[in-house]
Every structure is written in structure tokens, then in C-alpha cells.
Write a structure and sequence with these properties.
Largest sheet: 8 strands, parallel
Number of strands: 20
Bound molecules: alpha-D-glucopyranose, calcium ion
Structural class: alpha/beta
Oligomer: single chain
């Protein structure tokens, strides 16, 4: 079982923030095409393209009104075809974002669906009568408030696990599945190479839609319906009717997924998906069902979670490896130290830690430069509806947090930390656009930008490049068995990889302390594969410097 996607490194592009080509302050497809040489230089194998479909843009494209049209703000279908061609010419594949748990309320299907209780599209969505004049159950939307919206037209409620402009599709209706499968086949015929499937673990709902345990705002988590009774059946049907038609790569975004469920989604006999995104390691610095907190990541817990996934899927399924995406804050600020003194070693340390594990690594745009969280000072600077709605609900309506507290949490956790323009150079607007962009540029763009890093052999960019190249050279990085050492250390993440006679030792210091570590004897005569500090002598007792990371080969 060796597959190209197991050896691949995937780069996520959030097109709205990557490169603007026509001076409207919004990133677009032509801009992305202009930057393909940069991505080729980095050495990535595929681009996961966040949504570029027709959309009113309420959730930046995760609210789709036409799956077979391109949002004019991003360009045209011809631009997308050019992207596929130009990427192929550089051996880069294109993975589309497939957002089919829900559509936009402006999708043709929903417009008809809401018109009457009996129309051919009524059953494309999830309509229910109210209960005692209220919502049918206590589920909350991921973006605050209830997961139901009352529609006067027909005196019923529709379900939306996300915003009310994102009504959930009814996957129990075979016509919905046929529509989605036809659309996917249409995209495969266009030459795309696979799909990242948005919240795919939520598509099958429990038939009786039971109440769940209320969270801090009084509603049950949007994850309540995760891994419903028919989800595996529907994905197996998708495998047969669509995915087997081409050499595809598939990754399912599976919020609320357990190890046992993941084994079903991503089993290596390829009945469903190739791999899943699980989010347990993203919850280490969150409270149960509440990400808005100051809680710091506890490294022991982080190691326990990642190790559980590394060992749990070994020989059975396949992991995806990530610290960042468009829904998460920047990892260098979140888990290490983004101050000038430690920024570079921190970013390289995090990269070493995740890229040396078993699975397929994902790099989120700007992560390869060590882009940081943003010093937002006012709620007006945010664009993300998750952040804006949470502020309104938790500060203004429910007084769960003060404004100051919430601003602190937003600066730590808001999705907008990852959505500011890509920092290309030190010119106005970081070279992203010639006009003021749709969201502010991180003021640190003069220090952190691609232009400065691409030609500097010591840069974070070139460190990523090296990690990606190493994965291509060394089978052990792809397939070696993972084993954790020092589980109790609060500072050091240390693990081995083993393939036949070969062995690697990965050592990462997640703290600014100098930490004494015992190096297993078998590595003491070994050599460095990569390191983020000048290489010291390898010996049994080593002092690991602040945020130091290195990999030893036996
Ligand atoms: C996924 C996306 C996120 C989006 C949500 C609703 O979690 O990654 O950006 O808001 O689904 O589509
Ligand atoms: Ca543009």
C-alpha cells in the first residue's frame, strides 16, 4: 500500500487572502496563478483550494449558491481551468473544497425549497415544525444562536448547523446525493484531483434529532450530530459513484471524530476517504465546547493526543498532519514564541515536530514564513462571522465575558488571525494588493515576508523547503513507525521513527528553557538530518536550547 498522496505535502490556499491581481483588494485565481512558481519552489505536491464557487460570501465562500460556477471576485471558469493546467505543468495537483453539508440560502434548491411545504426541493433540506412555539431542538449553530431558523412562508423551521445563510442539506434524500455525486464527477472531468470535504462528519443526522448537552451560550454543540447513522454508507456510495472514477485524493474534515470512527472513514482499503482531519489536538488549549479562553496548551496533553492518533491509525488508516488552517490561529503565536528573539526557531521547531510524523502534512499559506497572529485592537477590524457573532452573543447579549476579555480571546483564537493577506514583500499592503485589502494586513509584514525569506538559506521558508524535500528522499519519514519518548516532559517532545533497520530521533523543545535531555545511545554515533540551531556535538547528555529542534539519524 504505497500511494502518491501518502508521500505528498499539501498546501492550503485561502484565495481571498493569497494574491490580488486586479487591484480590488481581494485575492483571486489569476493572482494564485502568478504565484505558482513560488509554490513549486517550496516543493509542494498539491494545492487544497478553499472555495472559489459562486457565493454571497457570508462565510467567505463556505456558503455556496452554485457549485458549478466561479465567484466573479475570484475570476472566471476559464481562470480556474488555466490554474489546473498551469499547476499540472508544475506537477502540482488541485484539490477542491467540497462544501456539501449545507448550501447557501441563495442556492436555487433552497430558494425553491422554502416556497411551499410540497415542492420537489422541499426535502432537499431539513424542515421541522416548532415545538411549543420554539425551535425543534436545542442544537446551536457553530456561529452562535440556535441551529434553526423560523421561516414564516411555510410556518416551519429549517436546520443550519452553521449560519442561517447555510441551510443543511438532507443527505437522507437520494436525490440530494445524486446531485452532489454528479457535480463531483463534473469537477473530476474538468481535471481536478480530489476533494477536501467540509464538515463531512456532519452530513448524516440522527432521525429523531435529539437534544444535546447545552454549552456556555445555552445551546448544544454544533457537533452534536457528528458521525450520524448513515455517514459511512453515504461515503461508500460516493466512493463507488464518484471517487473510483479517477485517481483521487480525499480528506474529510471530521469535527467530533473519534479514533474508532476515523478508522472507518480513512481505512486503507479505500472504501471511503483517504484520510481525515481530526481536531482533538486543536482542543488542547480550549475548554470543553468553548474555544474562547486564555488556556495554554499543556505539552503533555498535546503529546498524548497526537500519539494516540499516530499509534491508533498505524497500519489501519492514514493521518493528516497539521497545526494550521483557515479556521485556526497562527501556530507560532499559539504554541511557541513569536517575539523577534525566538520567532524563527519557534516556527522551525513546530514544523519539525509535525512534518516528521507519519501522515500527510498540510501547510497553510504563510505558515512556511512563520506568519503570526494579528494585534487586533477593535472588534471593527474583524471580518469573520464566527468572531463577530461570538462577540455579539457572549459580550453584548449574554454578558458571559467583558469586552476586554473577549478581545483577548479573539486575538488568541479568532479565525481572522489566519486570514490576513499573505505577506509577499515589504511594499505597501505587503505586496498582496495595490489597494487597501478586504481585511487588514498584519503590521509585521516588513519583518516577515516571502521576499526576505526566499533567498535566505537560514529562513523559515527554506527550512520548510528542506523538510518537504527530505520527505521525498526518505521513505522512513513517510512510512516509519512512530514511538513517543519522555511522555511526562513538560518541555520536550521527543519521538522516534523506525523502518526496518533505520531509525530517526526527533527532539523538539517547546519552551524557552534550556533542558537537559538524555539521548538514546543508538543515536549517539548518528548524524543530523536537520536542525534549527547550529549543530552541536551529539552525545548522551545534551542541553536542548530554547525552541530547539533537530532530527538525528541512527
Ligand atoms: C468548515 C470550514 C469553515 C466553515 C465551516 C462551514 O469548518 O473549514 O471555514 O466556516 O466549515 O462551512
Ligand atoms: Ca482581485
Amino acid at each position: 500500500m504505497t500511494q502518491w498522496w501518502q508521500r505528498a505535502v499539501i498546501y492550503q490556499v485561502y484565495p481571498q487572502s493569497f494574491q490580488d491581481s486586479n487591484g480590488d483588494g481581494i485575492g483571486d485565481l489569476k493572482g494564485l496563478i502568478q504565484r505558482l512558481d513560488y509554490l513549486q519552489k517550496l516543493g509542494i505536491d498539491a494545492i487544497w483550494l478553499s472555495p472559489v464557487y459562486q457565493s454571497p460570501g457570508q462565510d467567505n465562500g463556505y456558503d455556496i449558491s452554485d457549485y458549478q460556477a466561479i465567484n466573479p471576485q475570484f475570476g472566471t471558469m476559464a481562470d480556474l481551468e488555466a490554474l489546473i493546467r498551469q499547476a499540472k505543468a508544475r506537477d502540482i495537483r488541485i484539490i477542491m473544497d467540497l462544501v456539501v453539508n449545507h448550501t447557501s440560502d441563495e442556492h436555487r434548491w433552497f430558494k425553491v425549497s422554502r416556497q411551499s411545504r410540497a415542492n420537489p426541493y422541499r426535502d432537499y433540506y431539513i424542515w421541522r415544525d416548532g415545538k411549543d412555539g420554539k425551535e425543534p431542538n436545542n442544537w446551536g449553530s457553530c456561529f452562535s444562536g440556535p441551529a434553526w431558523d423560523y421561516d414564516e412562508e411555510t410556518d416551519m423551521y429549517y436546520l443550519h448547523l452553521f449560519s442561517k445563510k447555510q441551510p443543511d442539506l438532507n443527505w437522507d434524500n437520494p436525490k440530494v446525493r445524486e446531485e452532489v455525486f454528479d457535480m463531483m464527477n463534473w469537477w473530476l472531468e474538468k481535471g481536478v484531483d480530489g476533494f477536501r470535504m467540509d464538515v463531512i462528519s456532519l452530513i448524516s443526522k440522527q432521525p429523531d434529532l435529539p437534544d444535546g448537552k447545552p454549552g456556555i451560550n445555552g445551546y448544544a454543540s454544533f457537533n452534536e450530530p457528528a458521525n450520524g447513522p448513515h455517514v459511512h454508507e453515504y461515503l461508500q456510495e460516493m466512493r463507488e459513484k464518484v471517487l473510483n472514477n479517477a485517481d483521487t485524493i480525499t480528506v474529510g474534515e471530521c469535527s467530533g471524530v473519534t479514533l474508532e470512527e476515523a478508522k472507518k472513514y480513512a481505512r486503507s482499503d479505500e472504501k471511503e476517504l483517504n484520510m481525515v482531519f481530526q481536531f482533538e489536538h486543536m482542543d488542547v488549549d480550549a475548554d470543553a465546547d468553548n474555544k474562547w479562553t486564555d488556556k495554554k496548551m499543556d505539552l503533555r496533553e498535546m503529546k498524548a493526543v497526537l500519539t494516540k492518533w499516530q499509534k491508533g491509525l498505524e497500519d489501519i488508516a492514514w493521518n493528516s498532519l497539521f497545526w494550521e488552517n483557515h479556521d485556526q490561529p497562527r501556530s507560532v503565536s499559539r504554541y511557541a514564541d513569536d517575539s523577534a528573539k525566538y520567532h524563527d526557531v519557534s516556527a522551525k521547531m513546530l514544523a519539525t515536530c509535525i512534518h516528521m510524523m507519519q501522515g500527510t502534512p498540510y501547510v497553510y499559506q504563510g505558515e512556511e514564513l512563520g506568519m503570526t497572529n494579528v494585534p487586533f485592537t477593535s472588534i471593527d477590524q474583524f471580518r469573520d462571522l464566527d468572531s463577530i457573532n461570538a462577540y455579539r452573543e457572549l459580550v453584548e447579549e449574554q454578558h458571559v465575558f467583558t469586552a476586554e476579555e473577549m478581545m483577548r480571546y479573539l486575538c488568541r483564537k479568532s479565525r481572522d488571525n489566519a486570514r490576513t493577506p499573505f505577506q509577499w514583500d515589504d511594499s505597501a499592503y505587503a505586496g498582496f494588493s495595490t489597494v487597501e485589502p478586504w481585511i487588514m494586513v498584519n503590521p509585521n509584514y516588513k519583518e516577515i515576508n516571502a521576499k526576505k525569506q526566499v533567498d535566505d538559506p537560514e529562513s523559515v521558508f527554506n527550512y520548510y523547503r528542506k523538510l518537504i524535500a527530505l520527505r521525498k528522499e526518505k521513505e522512513i519519514i513517510v512510512y516509519g513507525t512512530y514511538d513517543l519518548l519522555l511522555p511526562e516532559s513538560e518541555e520536550i517532545y521527543m519521538y522516534t521513527r523506525t523502518l526496518g533497520e533505520e531509525k530517526l530521533l526527533v527532539v523538539c523543545n517547546f519552551s524557552e528553557k534550556e533542558v537537559a535531555v538524555e539521548i538514546p545511545e543508538e543515536f549517539c554515533k548518528g548524524s543530523y538530518l536537520i536542525a534549527n540551531y547550529p549543530e552541536g556535538e551529539i552525545k548522551e547528555q545534551m542541553t536542548i536550547r530554547p525552541y530547539e529542534a533537530f532530527v538525528l539519524e541512527k
